[in-house]
Amino acid sequence: MGSGTGFACSIRLNSSLPAEYRARYQNEDTIRDLILDSRTIAIIGASTDWQKASYFVMSYLLYEGYHVIPVNPKANTIQGQKCYAKLTDIPEPVDIVEIFRPAGEVPEYIRQAIAIKAKAVWTQLRIFDLEAAALAEKAGLKVVMDKCLKMEHGRFGGSLHYYGFNTEFITARKARPRLSQVRP
Amino acid sequence: MSERKQFGFETRMVHAGHIPDSEVGARAVPIYQTTSYVFPDTRYAAQLFELKQYGNIYSRINNPTTAVFEERIASLENGTGAVAVASGMAAQFVTFMTLLQPGDEIVSSAHLYGGTVTQFTNTFKKLSVKVTLVEPGDIANWERAITPNTKALYGETIGNPRGSILDLEKLAKLADSHHIPLIIDNTFATPYLCRPIDWGASTIVHSATKFLGGHGTSIGGVVIDSGLFNYGRFPTIADPSPSYHGLRFFDTFGHYGFLTKVRAETVRDTGASISPINAFLLILGLETLSVRMDRHVANAMAIATYLRDHPKVAQVHYAGLPDHPDYQLAKKYLSKGPGAIFSFELKSGSGDARENGRRFIESLQLFSHLANVGDVHSLVIHPASTTHQQLTDEELSLCGVTPSTIRLSIGLETTEDLLWDLEQALHAAFA
To answer: CA torsion angle for B352, B358, B361, B365 (degrees, to 10)?
Structure first.
C-alpha cells in the first residue's frame, strides 16, 4: 500500500524498551529518515546460518538495494558479502551499525560505532542499553533500539501490510510509490 | 519528540489497513480477485517463498484485499497482526493446528457454540488432542483441569447461548502462571464492546460472519495475535519446523512468529483461505461496526427487559440484566453492553415446552428463523434441535441449553416492531 504522507501512529506493541524511552529510541521520524537516507549498513552478529533472524534481515536488506557489510570474526563472506572481524576493520563509511548481539555487548559496539563515525546505531528486538545509547547520542549518532530493521522497512515500505500485520499507518492521503522505487 | 497522534476506534474502523494506492488512489478498498501475482524477478520470488520478503505469493496464502481486512481487525483488537480464513470454525482450527501436537490438551469453557464443541470433541479427538470442558464461572474448575499436557485455555467472551461472561483477567493470570496462551473467541462481543487482549488474552478468534460483517452475506473468520505471548519454550512455535526446512518461527520472526506460522504453514496446508470478495464485504461491515453495535445493544436491552417482565417467560439469560449471575462481570468487561445475542426459557404452562417453543418460533413475523447470529436482521432459533443438535444431553446441559431454550439475535429493526412481534408470537404460542 505504500506508506502515504500522513500521520504514522507510533507502534507501542511488542517492545521491551521501557515506555518512557520509546518516543526517544523508537522515534518514527528517525526510523523513516534512516531507512530512506542510509546506504551502507554494517550488521554485527551477521550469521552464516540461514535460519537466523540476522540472515533473514541481511538477505532482505540486500534485495532492497542496501550495501550490507557483515561483521563476524568467524566468517570470510556471508551471502556473497565480504565479512569483517571487527567494526573498526571496515575501510569505508558506515551509515547504520545494526546490532544482533546480546545487550551486554552493546556498549562495546556502540564505542566502536562512535570510533568509526557511523551515523546511527540500531539494536534489534529485545536488545538495548540505555547508558550506551546516551553515549552514542552525545557523540551525535542517531539511536534506534529494540526494533527490527526489516520489519520497520517493510512497515514504511508497505510490504509488511501484505502479511496482515498491524503497521499503525492511518491516513487518507494517497500512498507514495514504494520505498525501493524512490530510494537513491 | 512527542508521541504521535493515537487515532480512535471509529477512525480505525474506516481507515486502518487501507491507504489509497499510489497509482489510482481508489477511496474504496479494491477487490483483488486474483489467484496469483507476477514476480518481478526470480530472486524476489525465491525470497518470498523463503519468507524473507513480505509480499503476495498466492491467494491461498495472502491477498491484498484480505490484507486490508486483516490489518483493520488487528488494529481494532489491539493486535500485532491477523490472518483471515474461510470461517470462524477455520479460525479456531488453524489456531489449534498451529499450536498443538498429538497428545496435547486444551482446557475450555463449556459455554460454547455447539459447532465448536463438536469440533473439539470429535475432530480434535481424531487428531489425538483432548479438550476438557469446564463450567467457566469458577476459576478453580479451570485450575483443576490443567495438566502438564495442557497447551492453551479457551473460551468465548460472551458464551453461546446462555450469555455467560468470562472472567478474562483471572483466566489470563491463570494461563500466564502455566506459561500457556489464553485464546478467546470474541465473536459475540466484537472489539467495540470488549478487547480481550487489553485484559491479557494472547490470541483472538472471530467468526467474522457475525457482527463484524453484520450483513449476513459472507462466511469468514480471523485469528488475531497480540504478539505478547512468549513462545520461546512452546514446542510447535519454538522448535525447528519439519514443514519449513527446520525453520524456528519464534527465533526468526519474534512476535510475528505465531501468525507467520499460521499463514505460511497451517493455512497453506489446510487451504482454509477466505475469498477476496468475502474479505471486501467484511471490510464494508467493519466500517460501521460501532454504530451498529450501539443500536444492537440498545435493542437487545429493551427486548431482554420486556421478556424478563413477561408472564409467559420463565427466564432470560442476558448479562445486561441485574439478575444474571454474570451481571458484574459484564459491567467490568463489556461496559457498553453485553452484546445482542441471548436466550430465554418459555414457561411450560399448558403442554410441553418443546411444543410451545415450536409454536412461538413459527408465529414470529419479523424474526427470521435461521442458523446465524449477529445480523442486522433479528434472528431466532431453537438450539436443542439445531445449532446444538449434535451434542449429548450431558453436553447440552453443560452448555446451559434445555429443550425450552430459545436463542435470539437482536437486529436493527424498530424496537417497538420487535416488541410487537414477540408479543403476538408469545400470545399465539400459549393460545
So the answer is: -110
